[in-house]
Batch of 3 targets.
Target 1
Amino acid sequence: MTLRIVEWSTGTVGRHAIAGIDAHPDLELVGVWVSDPAKVGRDAGDLADLGRELGVAATNDREALFALKPDAIVHTAMTDDRIMEAIDDLVSFLEAGINVVSSGPVVLQFPMGVIPDPMVERVVTAGKSGGASLHVNGIDPGFANDVLPLAMTSLSQRIDEVRCQEIADYSTYYQPVVMKQIFGFGQPMDSTPMLLNPGVLSLAWGSVVRQLAAGLGVTLDEPLVERVERVVAEQGYSTVSVEIPAGTMAALRFEVVGQVGGVDRIVLEHYTRTHPDQRPDWPKPAKGDGCYRIAITGEPAMEVEFTHHGENGDHNVSGMIVTAQRLVNAVGAVVAAEPGLVTALDLPLVSGRGLVSGG
């Protein structure tokens, strides 16, 4: 059965989601929502740079899209700086009886223990009342640090520590709000960016640590531990998103740690450079400009490095593609799931079924 899909937003992830929906044999794009009035009326194929029209015009009319009665919404709108408003949007979709796969807010990836119980219950209740399901995921938080490490632990005899790392050069990552306001790159070292306020790292990535703990049957110490190392720019330079003057913040390493009895057991760690020559003592990908590395210590010790690179762009472009495709390829499983909030622990195996070239 072909599922009818509305794509919600056409930014850095959404444009790739449109391409993914169009390429998927079991999905049909029937609507596109945009926030920019200049995009209203433009064809989805044009917005996704496909080089051809898809016969679906973008709109900012929510009710018109609801009236289409789609099977699902692929929601890829920016949520990092509007978390509560985004949750309101997702709840409205569920109450309208529309299933949703979304790239954010990331707190909903596995919100139990991360946000107040009434907020979780609001989402669950909306899904049950509308008979619809919501799944929030991406690559990080998401596949690279939930599905991948949990699959690896199926090979373990004893697990001492699970460490999920992102090691990346963000110099070509185009998200000015994220880079400047949230991470604080290019800002004075004595300022405190949004991400580094106490508890924010645990809010943003605590869902990863807590979902791994739930998948492994582990009860963590409270609260989660946050560790941060900031790096100053020795000279000024430019990235695609922000200017980084000398003396401002230029790189960041952080950890969100789940401990058991005071011992690190589940660790989410990021090494974020904004110039390839920064901190040569930090880990680097074995290949390319960025990777996700999963290291499991125990018996046996295991390590997997996951990299990606697009045909027509660097790892930051392909990062948007894999984020979109994890959502697009999960649509069928989410539509089939029980109403409510669906985490990675609830889903069956999601694959690229139907996408093999020539198949």
Target 2
Amino acid sequence: MTIEYATRYRRASRIPAEPGKPYFIEKGEGDRAHLFGDLVTIYAGGEQTENGFNFFTVEGPKGDVIPAHVHHDTYEVFYVTAGAVRLFVEDTGGAQQEKLLTPGDFGFVPKGCPHAYRMERHHSQVTGVAAGPGGTFERFFETLGAPAEQLGLPREPVVPAPEKFATVPGQHDVRFLPDHEWHTR
């Protein structure tokens, strides 16, 4: 039996809206959203952890770099569970690096560090955790992208209108850097 809850974000969610409630979610059954060519599935967020951390997966096709962005108050973890993902990151001193991550590999991005990633193989998957003094940003995916009821990648990429990017920083600690250039190999 699967329990569904009404939340302020969705009329039906398998994630309880308030902290202090244990719960279980079967694979793929969290709150889903499509953004670009990816499927994002949220398993725990700010509502459940008193804004302590979030836990989500991102699955996507081989493709373009997800745009460079920065979280000023949030640390982010990338743990690859399938395929291959190239992580680009710049430290606070401006030094850039990139690393190809494969299943079992881990990447850590401190708050304030610009970063981006690219799926290098079809159906690559990253498990993400984000935490910081500013709270969590998991609802960003639905705000910028589109909530998804069905399993699977979007049929067509969900590319937000340019003006929609400007609405995100104040709500979700995600600021896009459209002019950022990567000088790694």
Target 3
Amino acid sequence: MQHVELGPKALTRDEVAAVARGSAAVRLTGEAREAVAAARAHIERLASAERPTYGVSTGFGALAVRHIPPDRRAALQQALVRSHAAGAGPEVEREVVRALVLLRLRTLASGHTGVRPETVETMAAMLNAGITPVVHEFGSLGCSGDLAPLSAAALALTGEGMVRDAGNDLVPAADALAAAGIAPLRLAEKEGLALINGTDGMLGMLVLAIHDLRHLLDVADLTAAMSVEALLGTDRVFAADLHALRPHPGQGRSAQRMAEILSGSEIVASHRGPDCNRVQDAYSLRCSPQVHGAARDTVAHAETVADRELASAVDNPVVLADGRVESNGNFHGAPIAYVLDFLAIPVADVASIAERRTDRMLDVNRSHGLPPFLADDPGVDSGHMIAQYTQAAIVSELKRLAVPASVDSIPSSAMQEDHVSMGWSAARKLRKAVDGLRTVLAIEYLTAARALDLRAPLKPAPATAAAVARLREVVPGPGPDRHLAPEIAAAEAIIRNGAPQSW
């Protein structure tokens, strides 16, 4: 089994995805254990001091002015977790919760939070046992951490609340922990706060979105190239020297990919001669590298932010190397919230340009010889007419999802927390947007493949032919109208599973 080590080294985005989506286990390094023990010694020293320390011997938020006597501090931590596990709405996806737990564990293992070694070990054991706390959609404002989602995870560690076990059955947390041989935690000073005061949910969703978008932008280059080929477009606009005049790295990458994908196409070659009257293609064909490339560069910026966050230790108060325990504002989700919102814009735009290419293939006045709506018997058959409607509906929704969440802020905690990031909300809408983009590209894939089949006997490029052949393993070629919904789902599944190689 693959292991991801938790220690002083920052996690990579691939490691997060491997734990969240796969079967990779986590393992604490010796350095992590030493750092955790050293930080805990500082917390225990402060717990016995007369001077109050926030989160150790005081209440929380607007109640931080209240000093808590030693015999009530364990109850304080458990009460914090119970009261803050106040989420509502549908369950959050398993992969998101696993990413959230992993990233909180990473911060705990950094030695900057002051939890006990057994707390870190228990959290790692729960993750490795495949126990996934039930986290609800609503409850985080993206400041003071993802409080309600992280509290649900912390509550499960103490044997309370509900979880999904390794078989995905909904069971009480106490039963799942017992079945895995894990003793429930009894929280000590500072631990409840340390377990819930991070940006781990929104960061986990950012990492997973980046992972998906890197793949989907490769898919977009392929489906765009298929549409250019099917619409008798030119490949000359993808030449490297043209894109060197505007040296955005993403644009150059997409142009290179589209040129390579179209290499060897009989269809493109058939209208390349001096008799071709196609002076310029429509923007949705000619400008695909510019749009896809700008999206690539936006993802690259998001990767920079994600990588910095993966090297961060987010908690409040935080334990410093010299033993000081200081309050801070590093739990504010603004850096993550901004890029989550930013990514929703190119997602909507890449989907929008794909829908425009699809529409051209269906319009007899713009498709250069293809039948209306690619129908077998136009009039009797409607072809892909309504598939484009589905694209249009999704694109319209994606434009709404591109409205930023991070510009909103609702004060909370009696005005102590008077400016929040709404980063969790930005992450939730980005996940929906990524799913929508996948469906839009699946419909372009389905439509372009049908159009390329209708260009026979001219042969498409080897790369686009391979993409058509993969689709034809599960979706028949042109013919009378069929139930299209399963075909769209089949095309989506091919994209989701990462095949063919041309992606």
